[in-house]
Amino acid sequence: MAERKPIESWLTDMDGVLIHEGVPIPGADAFIKKLRESGKPFLVLTNNSIYTPRDLHARLRRMGLDVPVENIWTSALATAQFLGDQRPDGTAYVIGEAGLTTALHDIGYVLTDHEPDYVVLGETRTYSFEAMTQAVRLINKGARFICTNPDETGPSAEGPLPATGAVAALITKATGKKPYFAGKPNPLMMRTGLNTLGAHSETSAMIGDRMDTDVLAGMEAGMQTFLVLTGLTGPDQVENYPYRPSKVVDSIADLVDWI
């Protein structure tokens, strides 16, 4: 097996790697600090499309993690870039929050419920039956179905919440049309992120807490992959998958010296 080249750029998931339920994971502050001091390109990734990078920058900063706006990459940004490449200056009917609508406005998209090119489904805490019904009708009339991410549930202090993937399944059942998911585990999100950094997969690494999204997407994009055991995938679950991360570590604290 060929030896991997030194890591020159880093991509890391946010929830389960840097923070957990609004609290920084020990070592996250040291990891971000050393990344910034090193000058190496990096991105903090999230499949959550609710917040804009500015929102996330402010939220992380309140937790003691100083991540610049330009170093945050969301599934909403990846979705917008994909749509901008596919159909510049298009139209979309959107179910989602400011993170998604802002990203689409920024690429010149018009948001409308009149014969849109796309129905775009993202994360929201207030999925409405009326909006889902409108989405079903527009897709049946020919709108293409796009989703920011396939996560079926999301975390909350009270327990799991239905998320984009679950609502997408409802719309698919009603229309017979499956969506295209832009976020993890689609390696598209990794590749577009690397492109924004001007980085190459051969010298990049992906850190995540989930085998089925973070590790899979990083591996398929050609990067080294690190699984941390502070999130959803436990140590006893790693062997259940037909692929492996490059390395398994207890937490982000174990990777500070890798930078």
UniProtKB/TrEMBL annotation:
**Which residues catalyse the reaction?**
13, 15
Cofactors, names only: Mg(2+)
Quote the record's binding site residues for substrate.
184
Query: Which GO terms fall under molecular function for this chain's record?
Result: metal ion binding; phosphatase activity
- What Pfam families does the annotation carry? Hydrolase_6, Hydrolase_like
* Gene Ontology CC: one annotated term: cytoplasm
The UniProt annotation places Mg(2+) binding at 13, 15, 209
Q: Is Magnesium found in the keyword set?
A: yes
Q: Which keywords does the record carry? A: Carbohydrate metabolism, Hydrolase, Magnesium, Metal-binding
Q: Which domain of life is it from?
A: Bacteria
Q: How is the cofactor bound?
A: Divalent metal ions. Mg(2+) is the most effective.
Q: Which Gene3D superfamilies match?
A: HAD superfamily/HAD-like
**Database matches in SUPFAM superfamilies:** HAD-like
InterPro entries in the record, alphabetically?
A: HAD-like_sf, HAD-SF_hydro_IIA, HAD_sf
Protein family: Belongs to the HAD-like hydrolase superfamily.
What is the protein name stated in its UniProt record?
Acid sugar phosphatase
Organism from which the protein derives: Streptomyces avermitilis
